[in-house]
Amino acid sequence: xxxxxxxxxxxxxxxxxxxxxxxxxxxxxxxxxxxxxxxxxxxxxxxxxxxxxxxxxxxxxxxxxxxxxxxxxxxxxxxxxxxxxxxxxxxxxxxxxxxxxxxxxxxxxxxxxxxxxxxxxxxxxxxxxxxxxxxxxxxxxxxxxxxxxxxxxxxxxxxxxxxxxxxxxxxxxxxxxxxxxxxxxxxxxxxxxxxxxxxxxxxxxxxxxxxxxxxxxxxxxxxxxxxxxxxxxxxxxxxxxxxxxxxxxxxxxxxxxxxxxxxxxxxxxxxxxxxxxxxxxxxxxxxxxxxxxxxxxxxxxxxxxxxxxxxxxxxxxxxxxxxxxxxxxxxxxxxxxxxxxxxxxxxxxxxxxxxxxxxxxxxxxxxxxxxxxxxxxxxxxxxxxxxxxxxxxxxxxxxxxxxxxxxxxxxxxxxxxxxxxxxxxxxxxxxxxxxxxxxxxxxxxxxxxxxxxxxxxxxxxxxxxxxxxxxxxxxxxxxxxxxxxxxxxxxxxxxxxxxxxxxxxxxxxxxxxxxxxxxxxxxxxxxxxxxxxxxxxxxxxxxxxxxxxxxxxxxxxxxxxxxxxxxxxxxxxxxxxxxxxxxxxxxxxxxxxxxxxxxxxxxxxxxxxxxxxxxxxxxxxxxxxxxxxxxxxxxxxxxxxxxxxxxxxxxxxxxxxxxxxxxxxxxxxxxxxxxxxxxxxxxxxxxxxxxxxxxxxxxxxxxxxxxxxxxxxxxxxxxxxxxxxxxxxxxxxxxxxxxxxxxxxxxxxxxxxxxxxxxxxxxxxxxxxxxxxxxxxxxxxxxxxxxxxxxxxxxxxxxxxxxxxxxxxxxxxxxxxxxxxxxxxxxxxxx
Length: 831
Fold this sequence. Notes:
By secondary structure, the protein is an alpha+beta fold. It has a 20-stranded antiparallel beta sheet, sandwiched between helices. Strands 21-51-50-49 form a four-stranded antiparallel beta sheet.
């Protein structure tokens, strides 16, 4: 299909160009200028590389940062050993690549006759043989790293990795190239040091040679010969050229014949995490339809009236790919009429944008072949002038969210910089993220090369672009990939995925450690008591129906001490332990004889996986080991009154303290074995807020909104911070955060927020940095601040719960998870 073709054409061009530059970068000898020659090019060579100035190319390649990323790979190492280039003394030459079987190319090198390549060199320990063939002499030259065959013909040197291709050159009396290729060669700018020519009718076959399997489907006849000049600076690679055409309309580029390109604007609705973006434009639908009918070999009258009316108002269409999901985009001059023609049925509204289903999707898809890749498009929505279709409703919600948050591709600094090097309007525009292109290559090359290919770091070259501009019998081609300085990368918070649950969320989503990926997964329970484990990409691994709600947070333990972690939590009637697959781990569940009244507490005093699990049942406190057995050595059994929150462990210095807050105002502080460690001298009016270690004291909030601190000698201190009713605090040892009324105070710095309904503040310590989060449930906004009370750029963002914050995958960016709509979880990435 067409988009897949364009993607892989970009990948193939990328691969060819990189390989080509490695060929040339290995040439280090001085050269002499030659006169123009009639070079030998095999008639079945689909790829031709024309070298005009070898010295200049060597200098450019030596300084090009992008090409240096690929040094040391098998491709570069192999090609650097090719003697025909290492030892050539000519400035001008042609290198042709000829397919000789599946996954196999041989080369043919032709230049002015160069006897140096054929002379025996004892230092390099060459082996020279002469092979008689059809009244000619074939030279076989070999050293430790390379071998080739060569002949002298018409004052030219023809060398090849294949003896058969040399024999073919002897049998072929004609050295003149095919007329179409000759035309493409004549277009080359000879002042440019190097050019790449590709037979557009053979791109399907070229691609099949580069990859181990035939997973892509695209037109066999894209164009006639494509002739491009390749330019380099220290931090960029640029392609400029022309695709020549015949009069035949059975040609992909000729679908745009007779039309004028419009401005490419789909990037305005593409999320910043888009991996591929393709845009097609025309100014005359009737002419475009006429070309399309010939290409599809169908009567022009067979297009439906509804399709004609819809497309006549369309100036641009294309696709964006986000996390392997495809969104088809139409830019309409009359979205109201388009909605009427599509006859959509609204299925839901996402942040004020209706999402529809419609019935005639198959007709729509088939009429726009070969441009569209999806087999189905079940849903659509409208954003300003754009109609967006997908078979995944969640992806449309993701596009809407990023559009609202203004985290779209059009605002990426790397994309803005790339656009400056392109024309505003093109018939076809392809934008690709370099890492997905690299990953696409890695997926379909031999396993022996996959690891080294994935090891190439293209982070500083994030965007590659290729555009085709149809003008008469020619199509102009421009392409670029250039370095983006890290200081110019976008500061954004992008919604990377949405996960929809079967029922509304019961609690806020929580991040848990994934011992397989070394990243984080998400756990959450819905109001039907179903527990979900969700990947960092938003995919539901499994869901498990529980009898009751989980009390408090889910903990994790490594019960077998083998690096594999399980999920530990309590419901009212039992303690549960689940493995990575959602299976119960023996000897759990542990039934409780009386209901638990608080979430379980998990202690690992010395971080050596000697876990202690504490269950509260009113005033009774029971400690278990990791196997669920009661710890008989724990001497404390029951408090004088029920606990107001779960037992907490705090370590100050080298001592452990277990804190129990009781309804009668008594604070009991125990040591590891349950003996009284600190006698607290006063009673405290507990608010139910947890205890925090702040300034090496035990710190919390009283019912009458005073900060209470208890030192390790049992003295109680109260401070009035002018906090209103329903205030809350959170703290680390050096940072105290309070929220009262509409004032968030972080280490004394005041932040005034709009009045609303807020969650309690949260503190996260990630990568040696403090983050403070709070969510306004009334306006659905999540705020995030640093330790000085300064809001993190691009906040607030949409959300409806407390958050969890961490680096959940292998990149350097932090991620944030939060409740979205009642039954959805949102994952944001902080770039």
